[in-house]
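Before the break, one more example. Copy the sequence into your notebook; we will annotate it together after we see the structure.
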Amino acid sequence: MKLPFAIDRNGAEPLTSQIEHGVVRGIEIGFWKPGDILPTLDEFAAATGVSLIVVRNAIRRLVDAGRINPRPGVGTVVLDSVTRLWRGHVVIVDFETRSNFFYSRVSGILRERLIRANYLPSVVSVAAEEYDMEPLNAILRQPVSLAVVLGTGHGHDASTVKRIISADVPVITFSERKRPLPNVVGHMRLDNSAAMMDFAMHCAKAGARRVAHVRLRPPREYERLGLWKRMGIALESWQIDPFDGVDPIENIQSGTMGFFEARLGRKNPELPDVLYFDDDYAATAAIVSLLRHGVRIPEDVRIVASVRRGSPPPFPGSLACIEDDPFLCGEKVAELATAFLAGKTPPRITQLDLSYHSGATFPAEQ
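Here is what the structure looks like once it is written out:
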């Protein structure tokens, strides 16, 4: 078999590098053109008189450099100069992309970092209400190196992770779950314990005696720890029932607006010292309603909200908040994913602590 290069056993250049550079020169001079199939490892070894190990290492270098692409059942294909050779395929599963700013931003950052690391990402949105698995099933029929599941999708993440693992695909999860689901290779979670402690201490220092938690979500663990009671603060629960319409964001805001309009429309409505919102869309609607009824913030009531960095509720000043950062979370999830793809073992649980910030709606000096 004729090759466009020869091996010099007495030369200073290592044999592996000679084969690597010889193949590159053969491609550059047109001996092998894009789409051509290179000789097999055995053929290269026989033609050059070197061992299979040397040939295999040289071919691996060329694959890493994006010059060639081994295809099972076809052979090693020569690539053109603009063809990108992906190192692997990563599926990103998001249950709430349509309405959730947070996870859509995390997904975007993760996708960008994977592409930069030369991994091909596929984003699959599983409709949380209907729980349609067919788009995911279609993706899993293709080779997949890793799946990253973002969010819980009304608790459907457990079944989704189980389905992915059944396809022999490793899974990394990111959600508010305290403990990882079975058989995942890594789990990242947010923790608001420290932020909530700082918030409660701020309330106590400011002399607040009543705090109303305006909630859209089930009770959290911090409410059962007696934190507020130990500080002499009565914690009330104001449950918001979202409207049942087409868009989730509109439903949350309409439900919150209706709740506050009804409460503020009473004769001599009584407000607590502090209103804490566990949803930023609910906080937006409540602020509009409060200002509409002449309630002064923070003189009449102080406001704190859980917010996403990049989309805080509109207010003339800064908002006191417990903040999570989707951009930082995206970076951290990407670090876990790329580390696993590089052959490293990620931590079983990675915890990111949220932070509390005072603001114009609840100043630090109060």
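The domain at 15-78 is CATH 1.10.10.10 (Arc Repressor Mutant, subunit A). The first helix runs from residue 15 to 28. Try to locate both features in your own notes.
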